[in-house]
Each structure stands twice: as structure tokens, then as C-alpha cells.
Amino acid sequence: MKPLSLKALSALFISLAINSLVSAEDGYRLWLRYESIQKQEILDSYLSNIGTVDIAQKDLNPTLRVAADELQKGLSGLLGSGERSNKSRLLIGTASQNPKIAKILEKQNTNFDQKDEYLVFADSKSKQTTIVITGSSDQAVLYGVFAFLRHLQTHQPIEGLSLRSAPRVENRILNHWDNLTRTIERSMSGASLWNWFDLPYYIEPYYIDYARACASVGINGTVLTNVNANSTVLHPQFIEKVAALADTFRPYGIRVYLTARFSAPIELGGLDSADPLDPVVIKWWNDKVAEIYEYVPDFGGFLVKANSEGQPGPQKYGRDHADGANMLADALAPHGGIVMWRAFVYDFEIKEDRHKQAYTEFTNLDGRFRENAIVQTKNGAIDFMPREPYHPLFGATPETTQALELQITQEYLGGDVHLAYLAPMWREVLNADTFAQGKGSTVAKVIDGSVFSHKNTTFAGVSNAGNERNWTGHPIAASNWYAFGRLAWDHTLSSEQIADEWIRMTFNNQSEVVDTIANIMLASHQTVVDYSMPLGLHHIMAEGHHYGPGPWFDQGRPDWTSVYYHRADEAGIGFDRTESGTNALGQYFPERVAKWSDPEQIDERYLLWFHHVSWDFEMDSGETLWNELCLTYQRGVNDVAKWIQEWDGLSGKIDAQRHARVAAMLIRQHADAIFWKDACLSYFQTFSKRPYPKSITPPENDLEHYKNFKLYHVPGHPAEQW
Amino acid sequence: MKPLSLKALSALFISLAINSLVSAEDGYRLWLRYESIQKQEILDSYLSNIGTVDIAQKDLNPTLRVAADELQKGLSGLLGSGERSNKSRLLIGTASQNPKIAKILEKQNTNFDQKDEYLVFADSKSKQTTIVITGSSDQAVLYGVFAFLRHLQTHQPIEGLSLRSAPRVENRILNHWDNLTRTIERSMSGASLWNWFDLPYYIEPYYIDYARACASVGINGTVLTNVNANSTVLHPQFIEKVAALADTFRPYGIRVYLTARFSAPIELGGLDSADPLDPVVIKWWNDKVAEIYEYVPDFGGFLVKANSEGQPGPQKYGRDHADGANMLADALAPHGGIVMWRAFVYDFEIKEDRHKQAYTEFTNLDGRFRENAIVQTKNGAIDFMPREPYHPLFGATPETTQALELQITQEYLGGDVHLAYLAPMWREVLNADTFAQGKGSTVAKVIDGSVFSHKNTTFAGVSNAGNERNWTGHPIAASNWYAFGRLAWDHTLSSEQIADEWIRMTFNNQSEVVDTIANIMLASHQTVVDYSMPLGLHHIMAEGHHYGPGPWFDQGRPDWTSVYYHRADEAGIGFDRTESGTNALGQYFPERVAKWSDPEQIDERYLLWFHHVSWDFEMDSGETLWNELCLTYQRGVNDVAKWIQEWDGLSGKIDAQRHARVAAMLIRQHADAIFWKDACLSYFQTFSKRPYPKSITPPENDLEHYKNFKLYHVPGHPAEQW
């Protein structure tokens, strides 16, 4: 019984072949490969239009230095050894730093009024092109360089070059759920990037490449530690290490933040209490924050998870979230820092639908938070499910800024194994109309401050990067790091455009390659939903490790079971969150409630999120709910099978190494999709007691097989001990 | 207070400069870089002597295929695009597979009588050179290819080329203390290499490079899991993954082994007992082993740590180590596997010097073990201290094969931070005369089977490789992986020769580079001993994490304290292991006892290991012991300072990236050496009450400072939880 031998042997020879290749496309360079342009006419055009880089030496600070360095790196890679025009020129810098640029901008009457606004344009006059990369700040110039290089990497023409953009959101921050032990919670990308033990003595070269990748998509902040926090990071031994990272990232415009464990005054300070109103505690935090700013003068601030899933918090002392947040905010304010206080709180002791608790808690506190204390809210009210309707909190706190927290790491979408491009998922949230101030009050507009004139606007993304050579495990998963940055910068960008950019930069510009990969990517989120938690189903994953199905799970704390969420019974399935149920729906604005109250009217993608409906409920397609459920699961499985074929067709058109890895993962994803389908349908059938539609492949095994299946050592699961 | 800013900023710009470099010398390619030869006369000679590779296509199995592939890789790298002679030819293969080779060997009357014996020679006739790479097996041919490429990498001449070698020891095995959670015990090299979750679907290309590195130094086995074992690896879900790794390594001649948790029948099998004499338990293991062999037909066997430091074992059932080992050996014997049963057992309940316990236990069992059950013994009787006298067990079990277990990972020698080349340490053990069968019964000869005609001779090395890009953290630490393999193959090789080979292959052949690095490397082990545990001191490191000093530690179980080992008091210091003390010395053979009984006669490097001597004891140098101790610590510190200067001088002569990393680590090593000196001397002075010699730099701080210092999150420490 050695079914693997042949498979492994072919994998081996593929690997051998890969190893023989001279060029290493191992994913390390992400979307910043700068491979020499092969298309002759494009290369020729670039060579004649892109001349010598002219960077004034006056006031060349670290940011302008890295900007020049990146430009040099990009151009020498893309243009290779081709001869560049000696008539054309490329000016880079700010007006205040480069007089030639000042002159050009003055003539154009161009003024900048937004932070980090870049401007890149080309001016052609009789075979001499002047390209200018400038902006409202040195940081903007760096962003302009990346925008220009993106333009070239995606083979856009110099003629008519005009890129002007400023970020719509102020803080565009990665959240690394990294532990000081170098394990990463809920990640499958190897060890934490932060080689703490060798800091501050040794700066890994890849810290620089991390900073470049972030800066290239406008990410300007990074929280280095897990929200399930460890107070040791606030010890000087670690602040010193944090400072070394901060110094490394600073030229790239990236500020560092830390998670603050609320009980640090006790654990680290030896105090008896962590009461946010206790003067001794307040002083401790003030002193601690001041200490941090001595090491890191532009420290961003704290991210806090408190009174949630066992994390310590102000409630132990009879205080509320605003009390806790404000104490930290007051400590940070004199230094220009912010506190991001997570709204992800729920407690089964509170006898209310989990879905409702954060809204109840934080709307009650609206108006209580300091200006530099913002509330960080997940995109939906449960927990990063493959699909969630937008969080009812968005738009419901007129006086409190909320950060949008997205999860880049695929905790619930197949880890580093399943291909899933998440921009469409995030676009769905951003496009959603909260109706907070009438029609058009989209989540995007709430978050970017337009609806309520909020300050400290913030996008946060739980990072999927680790010390794996290709950073993200699955090669396609890097697209989500890219997409997060692009959307945080400009939430109006389409999923299609972002995918198109990323594919061209990461692979190549061949239309067959771009189209094939884009089609798979753009379909992938829905496909993952289809084979795992379709039609509004949610939280039916396996207990603990979250990888794979567990809709039968019913042990322990109810709001950590699966049955609590799908509520399948003989009558039907789904969670009644309308007036006849928990009325979590009622927390949304009236226009939204009106749209979703009726199971016949609601967008079917959210049906079972808000309604308990009969197995015979007629869907838009005319099928019964039960049939639709089965057909949807099957469609998800079939989609992955199609991708395997389509991906196969790319063999030889992209590099063998990354092709092989995705191919191997697709086989696993297909097997996992079948497992999801079979496990869930055999389980739900015990309630529906209806036959499977003829067109689906019935489960291969009986329900007990799926219930008994145990998956060992899923990476990133917090219970993973030594 | 930002003392780091300047340091970090310069580190940053160094990193930036590194990033700008086209060629990546990040250490990934280890000693198999195959960089094109720059020295023209050598290149010319090679080009005229190395012709077309002639490999007969008949019977080209995977091993010959990888041999040919490696040869191709090596030659195209080393010889570049230079034109190779079309008159010369290079034949590769075995006699049975390549008739041309058969003919040549027959003419020479060359026969092979040893396993894996390779033969590489050149035969020049009128400007036409025939080079032959052959051997007693396909595996030998692969080893011959690596030997040939080593020859070229170290710029040796083709004229007179004659390399013939067979391994002196049968099993040359790495032990990876890797957990299934991908953490590695006692390692600082990132995450475990084994990406379990993506196995068996995905074979990481670096698995191949791992196999190449191992095969290049003749390593032919690898234990994939931690000796603090996890029975889950024996579950089919994991055996399937193990099989994929085995399939990947097989062509390189590397067999896989696993650690077997003795209680697996209970944890995995649901049995009530793990009694090795219980028929139900015996059957469970027999079935389990048979199952493993269905997946991995050449599975090597088990490595077991039992009844040691909390690991389960046969003693729970009133059985002994031989009972336990034999049960597993009987299960493995029909399939050709072995069990390696670790002698690292000690118990404070047993009121005997820890040093004596393994000897007592295992000499009592001599003769009881099956032929395929061998005892695996650390080089010394305590636990991989920077210096230990050889284990008294060596030579004391005439009827039982012992494996020599060395530690490549620097658990007690500074982790991935301190530069320490360990071949001299290992040579010291190998050269040591046990006197088991009179003079000349060296440890090497005991281990290689010469003294007692033992079978299944084995070298085991606790691996220092992890998923860090350069595998071993500190660039120089890779030399120990290399040295382990070279010594396991041929324990007569000198530390100097091994270092010379490694430096030339890893860096370059410039004599200034080779000499400088070799001098540092060859001195390094003694230097680490000098600044941490000199003159026979041992086990005085910090509690728990083992990084840094803790000679004052006296809490909890005595044989886990420091005071138990140094026994400093007002009279003197050292552990009396002679007749007047615990008489651990008495366990050695009489000739050894005679040499070491007298503190005046004993090799001073072991003085305090066996003797408690007065602070005024006169050393060979004429100094008192106290003074010698101080001067030795200071010498260690001074040596590291010298290396910093010497290493600086290599700037520009080797690649910037690796130069920078070693430079940064040397600064840390120097600071750590000072800390060791200051902590230990200020502590020991409380006993000696004597002044420091004038020529040393006294401790910068008082003893309390060192006692209070706490190092957080040392990687690899088993208590490191989430």
C-alpha cells in the first residue's frame, strides 16, 4: 500500500528539474521582481523615454535615498542593459528639495494639499521626455516611485503618463499575530518574521524587503505582536529590539505599533492592579509610554484586545472599554500616538446573540472615547467567516472613529493550502451601504472619514506573512497582502484591476497567463464559500484548528460550537436574526433592515445568516433550499477541479517552481472541498431527510467517517504546544 | 536615550547595500555554491582535463540520475561557459552499469569490497584525460561525484587525481529535535524544515537541497522528530507524510528514522499498557512497524529516549531498558530496521553522582540487547557541555554497539549567535583512549567497530538546521553540519583539513580569507570554553534556557542546579569525582584512572571536572587556580575582540551579506563573553575571597546585577509556549 510513491516520485523529479533552473522564481521577490522586459516595442519605448535619473543631492534624507535606490533597482532590472536615451530625463524629488521640479510644478500651477500625495507624469517634447516623480512629501516621492515602477511592470505606455494619488485613509496597518516565541497564531507561513533573539544586533536583509513590499502598496504601519498579547514586549530588553525594527522601517514610511496587554502593570510592573482609573496604574502606563518614545520617537501606538476570549481588561475592575482605551490614549497623546481598541468582544455569560454584543457595547460608549482612541472592528459581527454581512457597528458610532479590520491570513479560508483571492470579499464589505446617513453611506465612506468627518482613519489587515521563503506559503496568497495595501490606499479600486496589476507584476504580462490566473482568482472567494459555508452558513468549521468542516460540533461553550450558528433541525436551517429571532438584524439601519427582513427579498448569500428557513424554501433558482445547498457545495468542488485543468494549461508559461506549488495545492484543495461537501451534506441530511439531487456526487463515506476524522497539528492553532 | 539609532542606521545602510547586490550570497547554497572559478590557470587546467560527461543510459536509476545531475550542476557552475576539451572525457557510473568503466577497472585489477566505496581518478594520455567516477554501488558513485566536486571547489589539481574512500562507520545520521508543531527544541534556526501540513502533497524544493547537502558529506540517515517524542508521528496521517520525505531523500542514499514515544500504544493505540513484555503491546508495535514499512520500505528504525527527563519508558512496568529496546528491535528486525536507545538517563531519586548513572545502568545490561538494538551515548556523561571528558561507557560494553551522539546545534555554545567550530571538540573525544582493550582503544575505534567487531556502527548528530534561509542562523555554524558528516565518514580527518575544505567551498580560495577564517574557527571552541566553562567547569549555565551564565543557580532538583556541579566553597572549587569523592572516575579503565586521579597530573582542561581543588592550587603555568580561572575567562573575552578585528579585515574580500551577519554576531558574542566572565568571576569571588589579577578587567557590575538579569524568550527553550 504505497499510493504515494509514484506521486512523490514525480514531485521529486519536478523538484529536481526546478533545482536545475538558473533563475530562482521562489516567490521571495513578491510583486517586485523587476524582470527584464521581453516585449521589444515596450522596451524600446521605455528606453527612449526614460533617461538619466536626476536626483538633486541637496537634503537627500533616508526616504529619498531609498526612493532613488528602488528606482535604480527597478529600472536596471526592467530595462536591463539596454541603452537609455541620453536626451530624456527623469526627475525625482520634492519641490522644496529639487529646484528643477519646483520650477516645473510652478509652471503647471500644481499644488499639493494632501498628505503623501504623489504625482508622476511625463512631458514629451521633440523626442525628449521629461518624467517627473514628485509629491507632497519625501514619503510621497517613494510612493510615486513604486507607482511608476508598477506602471512599467504592467507595460503601460509612457505617452500620457499621469499618475496622481493620495491615500484615502490615514493609517494603513498590518497586524502581525506574532508571538515572541516566533510562532504565529492562525498562520501557516512558517515562523514569525521578527528574529527577536538576534535583534537589535542583526538586521535581517529581509526586513528591508518586507518594508519595500509594504511601501510599494502604501502600507504605513505595522503592529509587530499578537493581539493575544505578551507584556514582555514592553520590557526594555524588547523595546530595544522594537526600536531596531522601527529604525529599519522608518525610511519606508512605516511606523511600528505594539499590542498592549492590559495586565502589563501587574506582570511587568509588579503592581497589584491594572485598574485604568488607579493613579498608580495611570502613572505606570505614562512612564512606560514615555520610555517607548525615547527609543522610538514616532511609535505609532497600541492595539488592544481586552476582555475578550480570556484577555485581561478594564472590566475586571468594574470599568468599561472607554475607560481602558482612554487611559492608554492619554498616555500616548502627548507623543502623537493612537490606541486601536478592538471591538471583537463577546461573552457567553451575556445572554444575547453573540452577533449583537459588540454593537450593544460600543454604541453605548460612543462619544466617550478620546480623539486618539479608535475602535477597531472586524468586517463582520462574528469572526472573519468566508462570508459575513458587514458589521452593524459601521456607521453606528458617529462620534467614534472605527478602523476596519480585515484578515489577510486565511484562518477560515484554507490556510496556506487553498487558493483564495480576497479582494472581492473585501470589496463586498466596502461597497455595502450602512445607510447611516442615508443612501450612499458605504462602509468605505464610514471608514475613510467621509460620513462623519472622523480622524485617524484606519484600515487594519491581519498579516499572512511569515519566514517561509515566499512569505505567504501559497504563492497566490501574496495577492492578498498586495490587495490589502491597494484597497487601504484607495478603496475604490476594483478587484479586477488589483488582480490584473498583481498578476502582471508577479508572473508576466502574457494575456493567456493574466486571463487564466485572473479568472481563477476572481472566482476563488465565492468558490471557497460555496464548498465550505454557502448561503449565509457560518462558523461550522472544525473545532479548535478551524481547518476543515465540523458542523456537528456541539461541545462546551455554545457560541464556540457549530450548531449554535446553523441551527439545523427537521424544519430547516439557519439562524433567525430577525424580529422573530434574536433580532440582531434590528441593529442595522432601517433601510437595511427593510432589505433583509424578508427571506424572499434578502440577498441569498446572507439567507441563512439571518433566517431559519424550511428545507423546501424556494430559492431564486427555483430549487428548494436543500437542493440548492447540495448543488452549491458541488459547484464549489467542480470549480476547483476546473482550476486544476486551467492551471495545468499554464505549465511552461510561468516558472516551474511556483507552477508546481500551486498545482500541488490545488489537488489538496480539491480533496478538501470534497471533504467539506461530503461532511456537511451527510450531516445536514440527517435533518433534511431529503435525497441528494441527482446531479451531485453523493458523499463517499458515511457521517461517522467525517465526524471521526481528526487533523493533527494544524499550524497556527494556539493550542499547539511543544 | 537612543544609543541604537546610529548602529541600526548603519546596519540598515549595509543591508541596503546588500540588497543592491546582484548575486545573493545568503548562505542558502551552503558549501555547494559552485561559483565559477576565477583563477585562470586552474580554470584552464580543468577545462582541458574535464571533457564531456559520459554516462551510460542503461539502468539509470534515481541515484545515478541525481549523481549525473549534481555533476552537471557543479561543472556548469564551476567551469562556467568556458570551452571544455573535446578530447577529454569523464566517465561516471558503476562497473555493472557502464561497460567502459568495467573495462578500465578490470584492466587496473580494481575491486571494491566495502559498502559505498568510491573511486575517482584521472588518467592522462597525450592531452586526453579520462576521469572516472565510480564505486562499489550507485550510492558510492554519488559520493564520488561530491568528492570530485569538492576537489574542484578547493582548486586541487587534476593531475594525480586519485580519491578513494569508504565510510568507516555504517550509519551517519542527523537527529532533528523537531516537534510536529514546527518548533525545534534547543535550536535558533527558525522553524522545523519539515512543512508537515503541506506534506505529502507538496515537496519543498529545499528538501532536495537538504538531501544534497547531507549526501555531499556522506550523511545517510535522518531522524525527523524530537527525542522528546510525540506519538502522533506514528499515526497514518503522519506516516504518509514521512513516506513523502523518505521518497524524496531515497535517491540521495538517506534513510528516514523516527523517534518512538514509548507510551504510543496507550496514546495512539488506546491500550491500557505499554509494558514491553505484554503480548498485546508487542503485537501493537509489530503491527505498527509493519504498517510503517508498507509506506517506507527502507525505513531506518527508531530512536528512543525513555525513562529520562520525564519521557515514558519500560521502567514504569518494572522492566529495564533492554526489555524496551528489544521489543522494538524484534518488531524492526524482520524489516531490516534498528533501534537506537539513548543512554542519556539519570534520576535524582537515584542517590548517585549523575555522571555515574548511565554507566551503571548500561554496563549491567551489556549482552542483553539484540544485535539490531544499539545504545546511543552522548560524547560525555553530563550533557553536551562545552567541554566534557569522554563518556566512561565507551569501551565498557563489549557486547553492545554504541552510537556516538554529538550535538551540532549549539545548545550550550551560544546558539546561533556565537561562532564556534566544533570539529576540535569532537576530535578530542574521538582521539581519547578508553584503554578498553589496552592502549589505542580510542573512542573512534570503539565506535567504528574496530575494538569489539560491533555491527550497526553509528554516528549521530543533533542537527542545527532549520528553515532560516541560511539553514543554521550563524553562517559559520554550517561548518559543523559539514564537519559532522566528514567525521562520521572518516573520523581520522583533521579539524584543520575539514575547516580548510569548508572555507574554500563556502567562501573562496583566497589564502588570506582561508587563513583568517580558519584561524578563528580553529581557536573558537577553546575560546568559548575559556569564557564560559573553563578548566573542567560544567553545567553552570543559566537555568532553563541555557544561554548565558547562572553559576549561582541552586533551586529545585539538585542535578539541574549549577552548584551541584561546581561545588565552589571557601576552600576551593570543582567536583571531586575521584575515590575521595563520588569516584565517577573509577568507572573508566584503570590506565585512564591512573592518568586522571592526581590533580597534579590530570590534563588541566578536565581538572575541575574530577577534582575539588584549592583556590591556591598551583597550575602548570605557575599561577594559582583562582588567578588562572580569572585569566582564562579574560583570555576568552580578548580572543573574541581579536576576531572582531580580524573579521573586519575581511570586509570586501567575501560577500557583504555574510560578512555583515558574522560581524554583527561577533559584537554580540563579545558582549556575551564579557557577561559570562563578569557573572562567573563575581560569583566565584564570593567563595575565593581573593583579588582579581591586575591584568584582567574586573566585572563592570556587582553580582546582583548578573543574578537579576533575565533573558526573555530564548528560542528553542522547551518551555516556550504560545
UniProtKB/TrEMBL annotation, chains A, B:
Q: Which UniProt keywords apply?
A: Carbohydrate metabolism, Glycosidase, Hydrolase, Polysaccharide degradation, Signal, Xylan degradation
Could you name the Gene Ontology cellular component terms for this entry? extracellular region
Task: Return the Gene3D superfamilies for the record.
Answer: Alpha-glucuronidase, C-terminal domain, Chitobiase/beta-hexosaminidase domain 2-like, Glycosidases
The segment(s) forming the Glycosyl hydrolase family 67 C-terminal domain are 472-695
Which principal EC class is assigned to this enzyme?
Answer: hydrolase
* Coiled-coil region(s): none
The molecular function terms in GO held by this entry are: alpha-glucuronidase activity; xylan alpha-1,2-glucuronosidase activity
Record-level GO BP terms: xylan catabolic process
The Enzyme Commission number assigned here is 3.2.1.131
Catalytic reaction(s) noted: Hydrolysis of (1->2)-alpha-D-(4-O-methyl)glucuronosyl links in the main chain of hardwood xylans
Family note: Belongs to the glycosyl hydrolase 67 family.
- Protein name from the UniProt record: Xylan alpha-1,2-glucuronidase
